[in-house]
């Protein structure tokens, strides 16, 4: 066994822990189907949101970890529940009135409110695939509509009809009494209206593979359970899909966790072992509310990518998946800088530490070098004080600070400079508040100005940080009050960069001019 595999088998990084659980399923014999199947599910009732991406990213991390510890081939299926009836009109899409006319129809039978695809389901599937493709995920896309209509699901649907009573027994235990009276695992799709019907069954005929029911107008119908005439309610659908495909691993949010025994029980009743699971905590918006794709709160996929790289988003997804995390615009700069700190650390680490580093899991072991020689947070402050309208304005300062740097040699830095200007103008500029210095702070700023004016040493971070530190040390206890004053008085922010590094980047004459403006009351 290679050293890399031994270390991976011992690694405490959560993707390796999950991969080892999947591998344990096949410690006695390899899978008969010839591969291990990972699956992620997607409900395309609204626009894809960041949690959807997180599920695929995290499953991919586990799949990569699995490849490190086993030679069994793997597949990843991204399954869209696009045959579900549209229960309500999402609040963040156009043509709401038109959509209301199509309530309860499968999402792939609802016209696209954006007018770009053959249905609303196709539109949302395309958005999901576009993003996953942009990120470079390796996956196979499955549509529930095609899965049901093509006959791929027929064998399991016929088995569900045979074992209807056993599956109903599992379901009825989880339902309130009034729901039990009308509940059926089968939802017919009305042959005339095309709507998904929630009606009780008059008969389930296992021999013929049919169901008989009355529609809302009291008319009796008999339909085959095969061929896309009928779909399963969502909880039975979960377990039946696992059985049909032979799924080995699926993760889902904490809001699904109480249903796990139901999904597993149905999969087993249908004659197939249940997969391994991983339950992750939900994302919250800045108010602590669950991010929801129908209400469109929190940060969307496209919004994150407007202000930062997809790798920084993957880094955010890697961190503590079992802890609820607030996910709003303020977390973006921190995620960018921490991701690059890990990239810089990676080449200095031994193999065991590398396997525990988030960037190994983000890049599947093929980890690039970071060229972000100026932290994103620093670029934001630079955009703030310079009033930069485009990234070229920031490059004027960067070239002086690091003459060897260019957009070609430092692509991370060039990309981050553009993101920083955009982020500053959209989020920082409208909310920044400068304040006037107190007497002690004014005195310290005058002294800092004098020391900078007299300084003739190298324009380097550490030397300039020593000056800032010395000026504050004699006047402030705790010293962080001095740095807080610099951020609030000079940058209009509550926190900021190492100030010596900021002076080196912005320039000594420019920093002196900034202090003069603050002392003259021109920033407030």
Automatic annotation (TrEMBL):
Alphabetized UniProt keyword annotations: Aminoacyl-tRNA synthetase, ATP-binding, Cytoplasm, Ligase, Nucleotide-binding, Protein biosynthesis
Alphabetized GO MF terms: ATP binding; lysine-tRNA ligase activity; tRNA binding
Superkingdom to which the source organism belongs: Bacteria
One CC-aspect GO term: cytoplasm
Reactions listed under catalytic activity: tRNA(Lys) + L-lysine + ATP = L-lysyl-tRNA(Lys) + AMP + diphosphate
Subcellular localization(s) per the UniProt record: Cytoplasm
GO biological process, one term: lysyl-tRNA aminoacylation
Chain sites annotated for binding ATP: 293
Coiled-coil intervals, chain numbering: none
Principal localisation: cytoplasm
Listed PANTHER family: LYSINE--TRNA LIGASE
Family indicated by similarity: Belongs to the class-I aminoacyl-tRNA synthetase family.
This protein's name: Lysine--tRNA ligase
Native source organism of the sequence: Ruegeria sp. PrR005
The encoding gene: lysS
């Amino acid at each position: 066994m290679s050293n890399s595999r031994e270390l991976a088998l011992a690694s405490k990084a959560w993707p390796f822990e999950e991969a080892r659980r999947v591998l344990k399923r096949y410690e006695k014999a390899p899978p008969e189907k010839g591969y291990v199947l990972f699956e992620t599910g997607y409900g395309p009732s609204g626009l894809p949101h960041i949690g959807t991406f997180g599920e695929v990213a995290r499953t991919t991390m586990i799949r990569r970890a699995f490849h490190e510890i086993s030679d069994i081939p793997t597949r990843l299926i991204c399954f869209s529940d696009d045959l579900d009836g549209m229960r309500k009109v999402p609040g963040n899409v156009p043509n709401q009135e038109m959509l209301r006319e199509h309530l309860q129809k499968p999402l792939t039978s609802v016209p696209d409110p954006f007018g770009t695809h053959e249905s609303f389901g196709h539109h949302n599937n395309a958005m999901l695939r576009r993003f996953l493709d942009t990120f470079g995920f390796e996956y196979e896309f499955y549509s529930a509509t095609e899965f049901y209509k093509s006959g791929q699901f027929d064998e399991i649907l016929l088995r569900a009809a045979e074992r209807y009573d056993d599956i109903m027994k599992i379901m009825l235990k989880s339902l309130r009494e009034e729901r039990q009276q009308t509940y059926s695992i089968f939802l017919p799709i009305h042959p005339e209206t095309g709507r998904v019907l929630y009606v009780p069954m008059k008969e389930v005929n296992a021999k013929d593979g049919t169901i008989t029911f009355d529609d809302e107008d009291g008319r009796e119908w008999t339909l085959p359970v095969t061929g896309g005439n009928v779909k399963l309610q969502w909880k039975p659908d979960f377990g039946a899909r696992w059985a049909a495909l032979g799924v080995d691993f699926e993760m889902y949010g904490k809001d699904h966790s109480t249903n796990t025994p139901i999904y597993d029980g149905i999969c087993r009743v249908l004659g197939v072992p249940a997969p391994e699971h991983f339950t992750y905590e939900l994302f919250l918006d800045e108010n602590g509310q669950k991010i929801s794709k129908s209400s469109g709160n929190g940060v969307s996929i496209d919004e994150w990518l407007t202000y930062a790289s997809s790798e920084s988003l993957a880094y955010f997804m890697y961190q503590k998946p079992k802890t609820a995390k607030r996910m709003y615009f303020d977390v973006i700069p921190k995620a960018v800088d921490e991701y690059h700190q890990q990239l810089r650390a990676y080449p200095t680490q031994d193999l065991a530490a590398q396997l525990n580093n988030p960037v190994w899991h983000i890049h599947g072991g093929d980890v690039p070098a970071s060229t972000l020689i100026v932290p994103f947070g620093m670029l934001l402050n630079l955009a703030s004080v310079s009033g930069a309208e485009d990234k070229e304005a920031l490059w004027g300062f960067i070239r002086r600070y690091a003459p060897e740097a260019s957009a070609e040699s430092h692509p991370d830095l060039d990309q981050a400079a553009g993101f920083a200007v955009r982020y500053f103008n959209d989020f920082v500029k409208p909310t920044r508040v400068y304040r006037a210095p107190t007497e002690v702070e004014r005195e310290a700023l005058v002294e800092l100005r004098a020391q900078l004016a007299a300084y003739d040493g190298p324009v380097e971070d550490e030397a300039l940080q020593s000056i800032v530190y010395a000026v504050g040390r004699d006047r402030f206890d705790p010293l962080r009050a001095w740095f807080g004053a610099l951020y609030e008085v000079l940058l209009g922010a509550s926190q900021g960069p190492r100030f010596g590094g900021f002076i080196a980047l912005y320039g000594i004459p420019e920093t002196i001019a900034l202090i003069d403006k603050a002392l003259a009351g021109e920033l407030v």
